[in-house]
């Protein structure tokens, strides 16, 4: 097991989002997204640590 808490969290989040998002109370939209992109291209989510916020590289609409 990794001693890096961010790496551990990242792996957990990937597992949940890929297989069972409902376990942590997430609902995916029809396209499978739970994150929202602002008009200036920044991913928004109140539940994700700032280290995971990234600039959108493409439009998912």
Q: Averaged pLDDT, please? A: 70
Number of helices: 1
What's the SSE pattern?
Answer: HEE
Strand-residue proportion: 5-15%
Structural class: alpha+beta
Strand order of the largest sheet: 1-2
User: What percent of residues adopt helix (DSSP H or I)?
Assistant: 10-25%
Q: What's the alpha carbon Rg, rounded to whole Å?
A: 13 Å
Low-pLDDT stretches are 56-61
Cα separation of the termini: 37 Å
The rough form would be described as flat
Please give the largest β-sheet.
2 strands, antiparallel
Tally of strands: 2
Number of domains: 1
Topology, pairings included?
Layout: H1 5-19, E1 36-37, E2 43-44
Antiparallel strand pairs: 1-2
Structural commentary:
A hairpin with a 5-residue loop joins strand 1 and strand 2. The C terminus is likely disordered. The chain contains 1 helix and 2 strands, in the order αββ. The protein starts with a helix and ends in a 17-residue tail after the last strand. It has 61 residues and is α+β, with helices and mostly antiparallel strands. Helices cover 25% and strands 7% of the residues. It has one domain. The chain has a two-stranded antiparallel ribbon. It is flat, with a radius of gyration of 13 Å.
In brief, what are we looking at here?
The protein has 61 residues and is α+β, with helices and mostly antiparallel strands. It has one helix at 5-19, and strands at residues 36-37, 43-44.
